Automatic annotation (TrEMBL), chain A:
The keyword NAD does not apply. GO terms for cellular component: membrane. This is Icc-related predicted phosphoesterase. It comes from Streptosporangium becharense. The keyword Heme does not apply. One of its GO terms (biological process) is lipid A biosynthetic process. Residues 4-207 form the Calcineurin-like phosphoesterase domain. GO terms for molecular function: metal ion binding; UDP-2,3-diacylglucosamine hydrolase activity. Keywords: Hydrolase, Metal-binding. Pfam families: Metallophos.
UniProtKB/TrEMBL annotation, chain B:
InterPro entries: BON_dom (IPR007055). This is Osmotically-inducible protein OsmY. It comes from the Bacteria. Residues 3-71 form the BON domain. It holds the Pfam family BON. The lineage of its organism: Bacteria, Bacillati, Actinomycetota, Actinomycetes, Streptosporangiales.
Length: 237, 81
């Protein structure tokens, strides 16, 4: 079975001022990759105007594009409309569910969504106390549970988890320790480790590092644009 | 006199919450009357706006903008996993 080349980038934070700049870097992407994954924070303020720029930059590419939204894309409380706008441009948007792409007969399964925070094993928020804390961690728990189900049901030859928030601490190295609970949650990694995946990509941590691994041994790559410093990373599975 | 930690926190919040910037990852340090900004943004205009918002949030301080603008380079190579 042939190798799959997964291109991925997050945190492109596009708006009108950057129109055209990204598109230019996607020339010849089909020579380098089989699919492009967008790991959230595609806009700055989560407005529909910004989402239109994102749609125009990534529409009609010669490879399929799969995206998740990030916290910035939620800022104007219009995530569903942003997702619809991107879908109209032919971009698949995951919201705690899965898609399977057929790439020359190899089935690539992608599971994911925005993810959320809470912190990492032994140093995290718990589902206890005030309703505000329970709501915070409950949001992450529900997301992780949906990813677990989606991975369990996935029929694919290769499996990738696409997230905005980070499932592990490894890729946060360089960020202040104090904000780790707002950068991700171990519950996301636990779900992936329980059901198995070949790769997890995420963004969100601009000051972090590219490479990490879950406790179960799944490779994790932080593809936030400031971390990569290039238009996208390519990972071969 | 206001503690420098509170000034830095106010500027950091302003940079995150002001619609002109919405930058969550900017590090702000205050030493005496000098204010230093560090981090990365995606274009030069955003870098300029960060100075503007910081100046409004901390009037009277000397602003040093040491933020890098990310240069989106061509993709290079690939990693075999």
């Amino acid at each position: 079975m042939r190798e799959l080349r997964i291109a991925a980038v997050g945190d492109v934070h596009l708006d009108e001022s950057l129109r055209g700049s990204y598109r230019e870097r996607l020339r010849d992407i089909q020579d380098r990759a089989d699919v492009l994954l967008l790991a959230g924070d595609l806009t700055r303020h989560g407005t529909l105007e910004e989402a239109k720029v994102v749609a125009d930059e990534f529409r009609d590419l010669p490879v399929p594009v799969v995206a998740v939204l990030g916290n910035h894309d939620h800022h104007s409380d219009r995530p569903a409309e942003i997702a619809a706008l991107l879908r109209d441009a032919g971009i698949q948007v995951l919201h705690d569910d899965a898609t399977v792409l057929d790439i020359d007969g190899v089935r690539l399964g992608v599971v994911g969504g925005k993810g959320f925070g809470g912190g990492y094993a032994g140093k995290c928020a718990s589902d206890f106390g005030e309703r505000e804390i329970k709501a915070f961690i409950g949001h992450t728990k529900r997301i992780a549970d949906r990813w677990r189900v989606a991975l369990k049901e996935l029929q694919a030859d290769r499996r990738v988890v696409l997230s905005h928030y980070s499932p592990v601490k490894d890729t946060l190295h360089g960020e202040p320790l104090e904000i780790y609970p707002f950068l991700g949650s171990y519950l996301l990694a636990e779900a992936a480790d329980a059901e198995g995946a070949d790769l997890i990509v995420h963004g969100h941590a601009h000051a972090g590092t590219e490479k990490g691994m879950t406790p179960g041994g799944i490779r994790v790559r932080n593809v936030a644009l400031p971390v990569l410093g290039r238009a996208y990373g390519v990972y071969c599975l | 006199m206001e503690a420098p930690q509170y000034i830095a926190a106010r500027v950091q919040r302003a940079l995150a919450e002001d619609d002109r910037t919405t930058e969550l990852g900017i590090r702000v340090d205050v030493r005496g009357d000098q204010l230093y900004l560090r981090g990365q943004v995606n274009c030069a205009e955003r870098c300029r706006l960060i100075t503007e918002v910081a100046r409004e949030a901390a009037p009277g301080l000397v602003i040093h903008n040491e933020i890098d603008v990310v240069d989106v380079r061509e993709p290079v190579g690939e990693e075999k996993l």
